[in-house]
């Protein structure tokens, strides 16, 4: 099996029966919703769990070997959940509210979730790292791979991937505007500190201000 080559630092009895088809998508109970009712700001009936949420075959295979547990490979730690804990994390951490098509399956040991993201390909969800404090903020999350074997074969700390620049990332208009304003502040400081002459400052300032005017018409 795909997981045979990995070292388990936590091994549990295997799952006898895989969860029912509706295990993750059935409506929340009153008790489940209590944990998020204070910040949900809507009744539980308004939060529908997407019908595509399910566990891929690779994860079912892993659960049959150890229903919840831990895998370690170098600096990469994968403390994964059984079905009941997955549902608890999905609801209790607010995925239901802020990221309903993302299913948390494990912790890395440092407050980051390994997750399945069903948005692009519900039949074959990819794996993403989601900080527990940034659920629903895509800019703080990172693509890890398409299979657990691929993701867990790496030996680096998974958090290191949060700081690898995404070559396909395109800043928003608002982010570009903020960058221009910071440039304006920077060249003023350079002028005040004698790093650039007045002529250069005036030309650069005019160019940046013209760009800012253009962005202000777009936002």
UniProtKB/TrEMBL annotation:
Q: Where is the Knr4/Smi1-like domain?
A: 53-153
Q: Which residues cross the membrane?
A: none
Pfam families linked to this entry: SMI1_KNR4
Under what name is this protein listed? SMI1 / KNR4 family (SUKH-1)
Q: Which organism is it from?
A: Hymenobacter actinosclerus
């Amino acid at each position: 099996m795909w997981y045979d080559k990995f070292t388990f630092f936590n091994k549990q009895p295997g799952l006898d029966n895989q969860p029912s088809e509706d295990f993750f998508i059935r409506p929340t109970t009153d008790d489940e919703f209590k944990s998020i009712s204070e910040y949900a700001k809507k009744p539980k009936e308004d939060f529908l769990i997407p019908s595509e949420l399910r566990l891929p075959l690779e994860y079912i295979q892993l659960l049959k070997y150890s229903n919840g547990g831990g895998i370690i490979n170098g600096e990469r730690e994968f403390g994964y959940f059984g079905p009941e804990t997955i549902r608890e994390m999905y609801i209790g951490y607010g995925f239901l509210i802020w990221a309903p098509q993302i299913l948390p399956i494990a912790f890395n040991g440092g407050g980051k979730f390994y997750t399945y993201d069903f948005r692009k390909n519900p039949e074959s969800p990819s794996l993403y790292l989601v900080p527990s404090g940034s659920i629903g903020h895509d800019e703080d999350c990172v693509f890890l791979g398409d299979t657990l074997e691929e993701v867990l074969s790496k030996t680096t700390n998974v958090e290191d991937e949060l700081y690898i620049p995404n070559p396909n990332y395109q800043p928003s208009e608002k982010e570009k505007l903020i960058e221009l304003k910071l440039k304006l502040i920077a060249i003023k400081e350079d002028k005040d500190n004698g790093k650039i002459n007045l002529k250069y400052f005036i030309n650069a300032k005019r160019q940046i201000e013209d760009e800012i005017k253009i962005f202000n018409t777009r936002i």
